[in-house]
# Entry
Amino acid sequence: MSKGTDIFVRDADVDWESVGPGVRRKILTWDEGVMMVRVAFEAGATGTPHSHPHVQCTLVESGAFDVTIAGRTQRLTAGDSFIAPPNAVHGVVCVEAGGLLDAFTPHRQDFVKG
# Structure
């Protein structure tokens, strides 16, 4: 993907990429202002604590996650969501295998290849 995506993206047409032990992601649709990313976790896998200048909104699609944002931790399950403000340190521990749907604004240039 060098310049965003078409306005329609079929999940089956996007390859998973490994981003760490037990974690893989799909970059779905994006433009300069926003990006949507699906992330799948095996039980016990972690999203290492990190920060970035983007606002991140995340929906728990399935599974259970201990989510920590700026020192606060909550266990979230399917249908729950969170927002990580710009530059807030945040991360997850997957308690029960599942998936997250992340939205970033602006898009994550560091996720874009090419």
